[in-house]
Design goal:
binds flavin mononucleotide, four-stranded antiparallel sheet, 8 helices
């Protein structure tokens, strides 16, 4: 297999994993993921990222609680402002009432993100607030980390739920002694997968790629089928 095929295979086969085996993850594999992270591009080469490896069960449980609350809070807002259906798109209309109730109920409960407590490792990604592009830098590092994890046979899930509300972020910072001058960007669950989720469909290149001007479709022959 060519190098490009391998890269694309790892990218395409990475899934968000929300169910993990209790098997511990060896330190050297975690460090390989973080080695990939630190080679990400970074605005003005500031490298503002810091990574906290959390294995401690009590801390993970608390992160899971905060994640559940944050996730529930976010989806509750979407639910009561009628944005849930818009977000899930047309497909929701075909769902029977029972399925809608079950899926939306799970999202509102926060259960969907509470699994941070069960992953054997949570990697908390924070950034120096004073950097120029701390969020962008960390997102690039996170993706590198997740792809390396996939290549190593590990699963990951990017979880923003515990920090998209500042009230929760403050709790995470207190829990982990994160200094004021840092911002928590996200938490990445890491471990051996105990599920094989189906890939979520992606928008086609045709739908998302324009030619020279926004909205101008690419001539059909130039849209590669990768
Ligand atoms: C910025 C960002 C934040 C995310 N936050 C959460 C989260 O809080 N909880 C969660 O369960 N998944 C979270 N995800 C995972 C997405 O739901 C997932 O990537 C998406 O549904 C596509 O599925 P896939 O990763 O398996 O391809 C997040 C992903 C990104 C990129």
């Amino acid at each position: 297999m060519s190098e490009t095929d391998i890269v694309l295979k790892v990218i395409k086969e990475r899934r968000s994993i929300r169910k993990y085996k209790p098997t511990p993850v060896p330190d050297d594999l975690i460090m390989k993921c973080l080695e990939a992270a630190r080679w990400a591009p970074t605005g003005e080469d500031m490298q503002p990222w810091r990574f906290i490896i959390v294995r401690d069960e009590a801390i993970r449980k608390e992160l899971g609680r905060i994640a559940g609350r944050g996730s529930g809070r976010r989806f509750t807002v979407e639910f009561y402002t009628g944005k849930m259906e818009a977000r899930f798109g047309e497909v929701v209309k075909t769902w029977p009432e029972e399925k809608k109730k079950r899926v939306f109920g799970k999202l509102i409960s926060g259960e969907v993100s509470a699994f941070l407590a069960e992953a054997p490792v949570d990697i908390v990604v924070c950034a120096e607030k004073s950097a120029n592009d701390p969020r962008e830098d960390c997102c690039a590092a996170i993706q590198n980390m997740m792809l390396m994890a996939k290549a190593l046979g590990l699963g990951t899930c990017w979880v923003i739920a515990p920090v998209f509300d500042v009230r929760d972020e403050i709790k995470v910072k207190r829990l982990l002694n994160i200094p004021e001058e840092y911002k928590v960007i996200s938490i990445i669950a890491l471990g051996y997968p105990d599920e094989e989720p189906k890939p979520r469909p992606r928008k086609s290149l045709e739908e998302i790629v324009f030619y020279e001007r926004f909205g101008q479709k690419m001539p059909k022959k130039e849209v590669g089928s990768v």
